[in-house]
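hey can u check if this looks right to u? its 242 residues, i copy pasted from the old doc so theres a chance i mangled smth
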Amino acid sequence: MQNEVVSREKWLEARRALLLKEKEATRLRDSINAERLALPWVKVDKDYVFDTPEGKKSLADLFDGRSQLLIYHFMLGPDWEAGCTGCSFLSDHIDGALPHLNHHDVTWVAVSRAPLGKIAAYKSRMGWKFPWVSSFANDFNFDYHVSFTPEDLAKERVFYNFTAIEPAQAHDELPGLSAFYRSDKGEIFHTYSSYARGPEELIGTLMILDRAPKGRNEESTMNFVRRHDEYEDAPKTSSCCH
């Protein structure tokens, strides 16, 4: 289908009306960002040890000398053959941002429950450079409500995205983003988490598509997305996020 075709004057009238709403959305985003920064913090007292290419590291070590840490909960379970398509789509946008984040006192790390060897193999396949560690030997994913045991999924409800959802809406692994702060005294605080479509603004391709004539042109959330080495004539695999 084609949209209505009008004169330039008529188009300007419609565009100016939309611009008012876009400006309103921008101001609302600024307001939400301010409220996010004002959220109370929770002290992290539990010790977590992660498997990394450089050996065992604590949560404090993941900060890499900076005061702020963003952890992306990447869906790659211990028995998965490949990473989640949606998580891969988001992660395609990270490497270019790393120098800017690091210069601004922010460290980015992906965390998955898959063993380190499986993470390394998939990271190599995708050609990514960002740090990625394994939480297979600790409770980190479970404590931050992005991994679920068969027993969890057998219950009437599981806790995800700050609410109780039906197990049919869940998975053994789900996506999310968590933020942490490390004080000069070495204390660590959990400051923020976002799940489901919450981290969507990190996916620059979606923001670009929103400005294209057909937008995202999707039948369901990101149903058009493939791993970047699976487009064209490569075999298509379904996304675990669909």
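The two ends are 26 Å apart (CA to CA).
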